[in-house]
Every structure is written in C-alpha cells, then in structure tokens.
Amino acid sequence: MKILGIETSCDETAAAVVEDGTTMLSNIVASQVEIHSRYGGIVPEVASRQHMLSIIPIVEQAMADAEVASSNLSAIAVTNGPGLAGSLLVGVNLAKALALAWDRPFTGINHLEAHIYANWLGSELPTFPLLALIVSGGHTDLVLMKDHGELLRLGRTRDDAAGEAFDKVARVLGLGYPGGPAIELASKEGIPRYHLPRAWLKGSDDFSFSGLKTAVVRLADELGIPSAKHDSIVADVAASFQRAVVDVLVTKTIDAASRHGVVQVLLAGGVAANGLLRETMLLRSPIPVLIPDLNLCTDNAAMIASCGYFHLLAEKTAGWDLDVLPSLKIG
Ligand code: KG4
Ligand code: ZN
Q1: Which whole-number Å values give the CA distances from 55 to 70, 299, 313, in the listed order?
Q2: In the CATH scheme, what architecture does the domain 2-118+296-313 have?
Q3: Which helix (H) or strand (E) holds 152?
C-alpha cells in the first residue's frame, strides 16, 4: 500500500511516499529556516505564503522520486493539527483537491502522533507496549502506546516545550535561530560547569523548563552575554543548559518507562536530533531504546505517510469536512 504524505504544519513544506508504513520511497523537505531566521523566529503569515509557493512542486518531486503514478497510490495522509492554522490549511486543502482529482481516500493525521511513527521507518520495528518521548518545538509529551491507535498521554510540559527552551536560550546567548542545533554546536566547545536548576516535579510525569530558562537569562546577564563576546563562556553556558535539559528528559522518561513496564522507549521530535540526548538515553536506559534517523526527527512527511498507513489499516479515513485543528493534543 503506497501512501502520499503531506506536511505543512509549521515551517517545513514536505511530501513523501511510503510503502506499507515502513519503506520510504521518497522524502522531500523544503525548509523555510533561512527566511524565518531573519526575524529570529517563525512568522505565521510568511510560513503559509511560502507553503503555497512550494507545496505543489514538492509533491510532484516526491511522486517522481518514488516513481509512483497517482493511479498506484492507495491514499493521501495529511497533517491537520496541531500547528499554525494558515499553514495547516495549505496542506489539508491540497490533500482534498488531490483526493478529489485522483479519486483516492485521504486521512487527517495528528502531527505529534506522526513524530512517533518516524521510528517505523528505521531498520528495527518498534514493539508494544512502548513509551514515547516527543520533544519538539511546541510540545514535550510522554506517551504510553499499547498498540496502534491506543495512546495515553502520561505527562506534558507545564510551560515551555524542550525545543522552545533551546530556541529561547539560544536567542539569549546570541546564537541565532533555530536554537537547538546552534546550542548543540556551541556546547561541543564548552564544559557544563554552571549548575542550573532541574525541575523534577516528583510524583508527576509532567515537565517544566521555564525555571531553567529564567536561570540561564539571569546567568547570562551576570556574565555580560551576549554584549561581551566571550565565546568560551557562551559555550560553557550552552553546555550547562543542554546537560540540564537532557538530564531531566532522560531521568523522567526512564522512570516512567520502568513504572509502566514497557518493553521499548522511543524518542521522537526535533529535539531527538540532539546528540547528547540520543547518547545519554542509549547509555542510561535499561530498556531498549529506538531513535529515528537524524533527518526523520525534525518535521517531514514520511512520518505522516507511515502514520497514515496504520490509520488506513484501522479504516480511519476523513470526509470532505476535515478541518484543521491548531491546538490538537495527543492521547
Ligand atoms: O519537531 P520539529 O522539527 O518541529 C516541531 O514540530 O516543533 O522540532 C523543532 C525543534 C526546534 O525547537 C529546534 O530548535 C529543535 O527541534 N531541534 C533541536 C535540535 N535540532 C532541532 N534541539 C536540540 N538539539 C538539536 N540538534
Ligand atoms: Zn514536529
């Protein structure tokens, strides 16, 4: 079963063709990062306009790379939430137009659930029951998954998402946007010698990163960052921040995984591209860990198509009234 995935929830315009939920035949991502970095963050109106310009060539490219004709597609899967309303509308409306023109079923996909499905595109398939840590720009969720379609959110962030904290701290340190890769790069030259607070929220599977972010702002101020350009001090602060975030994410995930008796831990979302998080989770978890390839952690449409395959197996298709759900939750 070959499925076309379409993703336009944020600042990546993406299309992909995936066979049987696990074999990627093509995966095209057009990033708008350069355009938004001029403004230090995503500008929603600019994002939707850019999606409109890019989406049709990107879909054509995905179909061509996969060497698939529309008559060989089983269905179309499209992200309908959460995300920026104007951006989501571009993908959802194109999916409907293609479904009508090609006479194919289509299905609406939860972007967060799809992040977990990036793990179905690797060489080893996940096993249930599993615990997924989704760490992206807008969300930090711990999700217990007993089977396809059986998801229970155990915890979430009470304030900033992990990726959002990376982005805000990078701005404070003068490292630019997007912050995650910039902090990771700067940290390679630094020593995590500053003690920064960790919000453990004992007795809860929730997270909180705003106290840590405020502590970094205060520390940066004391150290005269970024006006005084001390690259090695900036690197030390970045490394200390990265260590604190990873410490909390890994410790709390392993704790929840042990309590719920899962057989696997999955990482998902843009922050799962972070080298220290990947290494530390693999090193510290007594339960086997699966992590998507680097290019499948950040937003892409292959994960949408993979998730769509399992929706179709469960006969979950959408009608013409499918709407965008900017605040959609998981589980
Ligand atoms: O999943 P994603 O591509 O988009 C959303 O659904 O939000 O995640 C984007 C987030 C951004 O906050 C970005 O700074 C973060 O993922 N990120 C990273 C790394 N690469 C991307 N955070 C830490 N380390 C990285 N290497
Ligand atoms: Zn995402």
Answers
A1: 16, 15, 27
A2: 2-Layer Sandwich (3.30)
A3: strand 150-156
Nearest-ligand number for the alpha carbon of 271: 1
In angstroms, what is the span from residue 206 Cα to ligand 1's centroid?
Answer: 19
Under a CB-based contact definition with an 8 Å cutoff, are residues 212 and 244 in contact?
Answer: yes
Domains 2-118+296-313 and 128-291 alike in fold: yes
Smallest-distance ligand from the CA of 241 = 1
What residue ranges line ligand 1, CB within 6 angstroms? 10, 136-138, 163, 166-167, 178-181, 184, 269-271, 273-274, 298-299
- Per-residue pLDDT reduced to its tens digit, 10-22: 999 999 999 999 9
Distance 157 CA to ligand 2 centre (A): 15
- Residue 136, SS3? coil
CATH class of 128-291: alpha beta
Residue 91 has pLDDT above 70, yes or no: yes
Interval 65-69 mean pLDDT: 98
Is residue 124 predicted with pLDDT exceeding 90?
Answer: yes
pLDDT at residue 229, as a whole number: 65
Confidence label for 41 from pLDDT (cuts 50, 70 and 90): confident
Kindly give the number of the ligand 1 atom that is closest to the alpha carbon of 138: 7
Residue showing tokens 């998801």:
151
Residues near ligand 2 ion, CB 5 Å cutoff: 136, 299
CA 153/CA 284 separation, integer angstroms:
23
Distance 162 CA to ligand 1 centre (A): 8
Q: What is the pLDDT of residue 131?
A: 98
In the reported structure, the alpha carbon of residue 7 is separated from the centroid of ligand 2 by a whole-number distance in angstroms of 10
Instruction: Please give the mean pLDDT across all residues of the chain.
Output: 96
Q: Is the peptide bond before 197 cis (omega within 30 degrees of 0)?
A: no
- Give the mutation target among 271, 291, 300, 304 for probing the ligand 1 site: most ligand atoms within 8 A of CB: 271
Q: Mean pLDDT, to the nearest integer, of 73-82? A: 98
Instruction: State the residue for tokens 């760490």.
Output: 135
Span 231-275, pLDDT tens digits = 899 999 999 999 999 999 999 999 999 999 999 999 999 999 999
Domain boundaries, the chain: 2-118+296-313, 128-291
- Tallying the residues shown for the chain, one arrives at 331
